[in-house]
# Entry
Amino acid sequence: MTEKLAFLGIDVGSISTKAVIIDKTRAILAREYIWTEGNPLQAVKKLLSLLAQQFDPQSRQIVGVGVTGSARRLVGAMVGATMVKNEITAHAVGTTSFHPDVRTILEIGGQDSKIILVENGVAIDYAMNTLCAAGTGAFLSSQARRLGIDVEEMGAYALKSEHPTLIAARCTVFAESDLVHKIQMGHPREDIIAGVCRAVASNYINNVAKGKKIVSPVVFQGGVSKNIGVVHAFEDLLQCPIIVDENGHLMGAMGAAILAQRSPKRTAFDFSVRNMEFVTRERNCGGCSNHCEVICVYRDGELVDSWGNRCERGAV
# Structure
């Protein structure tokens, strides 16, 4: 019977929503990557519909669901998650499961980025970007539009450059104004794109990884890891090889699925949850001076979860 068990992992970010279904050997049975488009609940419904087309419920049963990402609590309530964990833990677990010798994990997503330091397979330190978005996928996408190319093409253009243009990497505003200036000066497109990729890597090292000792082996993941121009820039700046896993953009979801597999909690997950109506409402608790904002999640009109209260008076 254990051979037929499967585990679902979902990573809901501000830009993209990812999911994988794995078996007990952690082989991927189904995978999907879509845009969140500002609506995590709707994105997960679409995601589950796509996964259902790849997964055969007659041959396997999903008995564990792990959720991570910025909307993990909301989506966890929606799917009846057996494990809800933060992104740091999920990425560390996913990466060390496939790269047990990893010492440094670089992760750059659509709007955030993080660095995780690992020792003996355990995350010992981490840092995330705070205010600046110059080192994220959203920055790359906006500059690609400015340059009139698809963001997926940036890496190929960057590798053609022999003299990358120096782009200010201190923050988004400086980088964008400097980029416009360099375009007006007539720098070749491939040099400008290579400069943008280098600016992303430089911004990450100077701001996100500031004060952290980057030790090899280094694994680079997140959507931006698919940009070979940024990978090349990291290798040049760090002077060490950069490992890019083919499933690096799904590693958060993979970690969530593995955490669900490790958990003793079990569920009987049904894809029909995607057809249910979910509504979130906010109520202000006046039980004390805190005036907590309590978030309530309803499934088909029935309360399934709530959070935000700092004392028992705000319990729903």
Notes: The mean pLDDT is 86.
